[in-house]
Amino acid sequence: MILKESSKLSIPVTFRAAGTSLCGQSISDSVLVIAGSHWKNYKIDKDGLKIHLQPGLIGAKVNALLSPFGRKIGPDPASINAAMIGGIAANNASGMCCGTAENSYKTMDSIRIILADGSLLDTSDPESKEHFRQTHPQLIQEISEMAASVKANPILSARIARKFKMKNTTGYSLNALVDFSDPFDVIEHLMIGSEGTLGFIAEISIKTVVEHPFRASSLMIFPDIEKACNAVSFLKSAPVAAVELMDRAGLRSVEDEARMPEYLKTLSPTASAILVETRAMQKEELDRQIAVILETVKRIPSEIPIQFTSVPSEYALLWKIRKGLFPSVGAMRKTGTTVIIEDVAFPVPRLAEATLDLHRLFEKWGYHEAVIFGHALEGNLHFVFTQDFGSQSEIDRYAKFMAEVAELVVAKYDGSLKAEHGTGRNMAPFVELEWGAEAFALMKQIKQIFDPNYLLNPGVILNNDSEAHLKNLKPIPAASEKIDQCTECGFCEPNCVSAELTLTPRQRIVVFREMSSLAKSSHEPHIAAAHAEAYQYKGNETCATDGLCATACPAKIDTGKLIKNLRTEEIDSGQNRAVWIADRMAGTTAIVRKALSFVGFCHSILGTPIMKGISGSLRKLSENRIPLWNEFMPLGAKRINKIQSLKSAKKVVYFPSCINRAMGVSKENHGEKQLSEKMLELLNKGGFEVIYPEKLKGLCCGMAFSSKGYTGAGIKKSNELEVA
Ligand SMILES: Cc1cc2nc3c(=O)[nH]c(=O)nc-3n(C[C@H](O)[C@H](O)[C@H](O)COP(=O)(O)OP(=O)(O)OC[C@H]3O[C@@H](n4cnc5c(N)ncnc54)[C@H](O)[C@@H]3O)c2cc1C
């Protein structure tokens, strides 16, 4: 419907899944279709060997669904906890293990797409294909002819095949024209990596891959990058699942983080690391593989002795080093600057030379904080640096640096300018440089066939403006030290409880930044006022301030703290009243308990409809101060019986929050035990003796106050609890 209308009215449309893309491909100043929350259906087939997925499912959630079958999806971007299937397929995303063998292109079984004219094609359904053949004969013919002409051009088809042996997401998936002849096979594979510029992916069926139960990892430190890269070349034929390269600057950027190995601080100035992982179905097989790998790298002298660990907590720590590289640069950057991650690929035998060349470019252009890491087994390197877009001279520096990077990757190494993150707007000006005129013409022809009016995600992948990557640069103004380090990656969004009601933490931050800029400029005060008014409910009142966003944020930003600050600023009186209540916590919880029990009693006498009527009237009379009652309201909690606990040498302190001390089960769940009793049972079952803090009745963690902006009372209660 949307596509039919946009086609009729010539209005550009962009699709978005989780919006975690790094190259500006899921943004728009026209219609943005966010296919997330209503696109989460799935069906598992053949005992997990195949899965049918709608585009709004988060990758990690799909893997959780497949886990009981010992399977997972092939694509494994580092963003898998947030990225959704639509974006994973449309970017042909990949990661540490999937390489070019298990990406969406290789593991796709069939696809259901909606084209720019609003027509639907389901390649799993013979009837749909037949119908499409009849309604779109020209499209079918043009695609068939293209595939045939590419195959008839041995130099071009060999170049395409060679370039896709490496990871490559620059431009369209031209390998579809080489790998397939059936037009439907070509169409479905062209959709992969098309970044929403050829059609909408409404469903995709994927052949799953095995999830090995046994894993071991080793952080191998070599004296220099050359030796580390040589080790990578040798490991290419060893039984490894992942080999991640990290340069000295990268290791230095995380050495001060909690629980990092001490030796990181004392490595030689040129030391470089590779993090190697091996996986197997059986323990014995894993041990054999470890022996083969150790034998393989024995020829290269390492800076510290090489050893593997299969202890989950230990290898998780090693991977924490690798995963911390991007956020650590982001977190260290100067306020107001942007963190940029590039994503290139080189032939593996030339990886060392290419890495040194990149280091030289960083030096030349003054990117001294830049770090290099990446999926070395695939020749795929990421480099992360910070960039100020606040002045023309800085933009010029960035432009010259990027031009030299492109020249280096293409002219010297015939590599990929975008290995896995997609072309987006950022790399669109360089697609022809990488591919050459002949292949680039094919890409334009593909776009012309599927979207002749250039309405789908215009400017992405193909862009006539050779300076598109230097325009519309997004400022990141300083707004509050609580959130200035946010890179707007979107990892926080799946954790937010109000995401589908109002704003996500990322959106709260983005709007807050905009409001801060507006407040600083004297232009258009009415816009600033309108923002502030809308933010009151959408940004402020609906934030749960529970800090769950921080648990997923690479920079550990707790957006709730920003909102608590705003709430504190709003409170001009009442701080003392909050402290007064906080000092009488035992009485307060007792009153709540009794009030809830009384309301529950009234409910049992009057019934639900009358209670609802009375509650509605009271709320109106109180001008919304009295909360609206509903039948799920809990009854007052039973007092906590401290004597019940089992006696044991294993002891645990259990602090039931004031909410759980006040609220019991609802009438609906009559017969169930209240949470504090269940917790006690669970801990006892685990053999623990439960110790309650002294003077429990008067204690509170402080959240009830601080979350409303009553900071003084919040800190007081939190300190009291800690002492207890
Ligand atoms: C910290 C960080 C680490 C990352 N690590 C990796 C990594 O290791 N590997 C990697 O490959 N990428 C990585 N990325 C980039 C990005 O997360 C992935 O490419 C991811 O797959 C994008 O998914 P998404 O759901 O966010 O898609 P979005 O950003 O929402 O969209 C991506 C593209 O797909 C299109 N699209 C979305 N849904 C549809 C649909 N239903 N139909 C048609 N087109 C659609 C959009 O228009 C857009 O062009 C990383 C990003 C961050 C922030």
Topology readout:
Blueprint: H1 2-9, E1 13-16, E2 31-34, E3 42-45, E4 50-53, H2 59-66, E5 71-72, H3 85-91, H4 104-107, E6 108-114, E7 120-122, H5 126-135, H6 137-151, H7 154-163, H8 175-179, H9 183-191, E8 200-207, E9 209-210, E10 214-222, H10 225-235, E11 242-246, H11 248-254, E12 272-280, H12 283-297, H13 312-323, H14 325-332, E13 338-345, H15 351-365, E14 371-375, E15 380-387, H16 392-412, H17 431-450, H18 505-520, H19 525-541, H20 548-552, H21 559-570, H22 575-582, H23 585-606, H24 608-621, E16 634-636, E17 651-653, H25 658-662, E18 663-666, H26 675-685, E19 689-691, H27 703-706, H28 711-723
Parallel strand pairs: 1-2, 17-19
Antiparallel strand pairs: 3-4, 4-8, 5-9, 6-7, 6-8, 10-12, 11-12, 11-14, 13-15, 14-15, 16-18
Helix pairs in contact: 6-9, 6-17, 10-15, 15-16, 18-19, 22-28, 23-24
This protein binds flavin-adenine dinucleotide.
